[in-house]
Amino acid sequence: MSATTTTPLPFTPEMQALYERACEALNGARLKRLLADLVDIHSPTGGERAASTFMAGYMRDVVGIDARYQPVNELTGNALGEMRGAGGGASLLLYAPIDTHLEGDETEDVPWVGPSLRADMVPKARIEGDMVIGLGASNPKAMVASLTEVVHALKDSGVALKGDLLLGFAGGGMPVSLPQRNNYGMSSGVYHLLAHGGQPDYAIIMKPWWVVFNEEPGMCWFKVTVWGTLGYAGIARGTPGFRSSIVPAAAMIEELEAWIQRYTARNSSGGIKADGWLASLRAGWPERPAFPSAATEICFDIRVSPRTTPAEVRAQFAEGMREILSRHPGIEASWEMYGSTPGGFTDRGNWIVQSALRGWEHVEGAPHPAVPPMGGQTDGAMIRRLGIPCARIGYPWPPENCDPAFKEGLGGMGAAYVPDLLKSARAVLYAVIDTLARERAETGL
Length: 445
Fold this sequence. Notes:
The chain is of the alpha+beta class and 445 residues long. It is 33% helix and 20% strand. The protein folds into 2 domains: 13-216 and 344-443, 3-Layer(aba) Sandwich (Aminopeptidase), CATH 3.40.630; 218-341, Alpha-Beta Plaits (2-Layer Sandwich), CATH 3.30.70. It has helices spanning 13-25, 28-39, 49-63, 106-109, 141-157, 188-195, 246-267, 310-327, 351-364, 380-385, 418-436; strands spanning 66-71, 77-83, 91-97, 126-128, 131-133, 164-170, 202-206, 212-213, 215-216, 218-227, 276-283, 295-304, 332-341, 344-345, 390-393, 415-417.
């Protein structure tokens, strides 16, 4: 995507004074302590209750704003705070998810994360100077702590705003669906938050990368089942009536990998790289290796541009499977789409995107660059799909000075560098002042 033109709109002297006062109140040590406390509170998807109740209490008792815990079920809920303005302004939600992508224990995660859990994969904070390490330290808990520090700085500085500032954190933000926890995930929590009092005029979501995004992809999950017959290790090869499901699945895997790359080339657009990866392969019983399985399942996730519907992706995959099976008449296979969420888009000329761009450029001291193509899922897609203009802004990621091992694979989700977070916080603060220190009509409402 080409570089975006930012519409200049200078602060009035009064707004500049408000911004400078709020920036002076940002407290890195306080942010780091909150981040470490959050890492120590385990919050796997669908089990976020302890983290969300903690944040509701922190917003109320430490920051000093109105806040409440929003229960969803006995295991999970959201935290929603509000700093009400003098009136006449817009409302703005600062949002981040609060759930982590791993269970954080050896029994559940090993060997799928590797031979052992590293320090960045366990829910126990380790502080090394300005670096905080632990499960979710960067994503999502750094976002929760940073946005809270933005509101804390505004509160401490005594800045008076016209509009209402909401601060929301929800569970179920990870791209998973966990049957053991009420099938939570895929933006379950943010939908509940917005439907239960958290709906604003505008929203800013914080996620990694030090750029401003105006769109997020959706997802489609597919399962391909290659069929054979139940067998036995003592059956000689060539025995009539036995067909392996596992051996032909190897050919299917190669075909699906090639199809995904063709799909990406066909469907990437705007700032979205509609990529995907084969993620799961399942067949038979590890405790019964003498009996080859009649079914081998291959599961994968592909990302969906806001300009492509999940239904269209489904049709493209159906066409792809027909072509694959025509090339392999000896393979019997079926498929299903078992998960889907659409992408979301906010026009880059919208007030909140332009405001975030102005904040980014003010902090960086340079024009905003072209947005790099990405495929990372966030709750921003759901926020936009519900009609709320939304900007996404983040922080440099992964941290340059963290252990190189923590950058492997997911690239630093468990390592956060506080100076990077403060840089992003100053940009968010700029957009808050820019949006909420004005009359509502000035923001295009």
